[in-house]
Amino acid sequence: MEMKALFGKLLVIASLSLACLPVFASEVVWIDVRSEAEYEKGHLSQAINIPHTEIAERINAVSLEKDAEIKLYCGSGRRAGIAQETLEGMGYTHVSNEGGYKDLVVDK
């Protein structure tokens, strides 16, 4: 009886652990690469601000794995593209340029 009860508890623990995986795996990091002044005028609520000129120096402060899903945006997509190239050059593998802030706000 003890082995059966122990096995049942292990199954419950394993199920709960697996249920949490998609939450962590699907976490997306949004980075607004505009200037601080632009960011303060309006930004996506889930976004953090790292200007594209500082992305290489400051990305480590976010403590991201190299395979984290990172979505970048700026005013039009140009600076996000520059930041994307920088991050990919640093080994980040799931970086996307989502374009301009105003386009994202309209789409949502």
The backbone outline, from C-alpha atoms, is globular
**Low-confidence runs of at least 5 consecutive residues:** 10-25
Distance between the termini: 55 Å
How are the strands of the largest sheet arranged? 2-1-3-4
Order of helices and strands: HEHEHEHEH
Count of helical segments? Answer: 5
The portion of residues forming beta strands comes to: 15-25%
Give the proportion of residues in helices. Answer: 40-55%
CATH superfamily: Rhodanese-like domain
Q: Can you walk me through this structure?
A:
It is a single chain. By secondary structure, this protein is an alpha/beta fold. The protein has a single domain (27-107), classed as Rhodanese-like domain (Oxidized Rhodanese, domain 1, 3-Layer(aba) Sandwich). It contains five helices and four strands; from the N terminus they run αβαβαβαβα. It has helices at residues 2-25, 36-41, 55-58, 78-89, 101-107; strands at residues 28-32, 47-49, 69-74, 94-100. Strands 2-1-3-4 form a four-stranded parallel β-sheet. Helix 4 (78-89) links the parallel strand 3 (69-74) and strand 4. The longest helix is centred in the first third of the chain and has 24 residues, at 2-25.
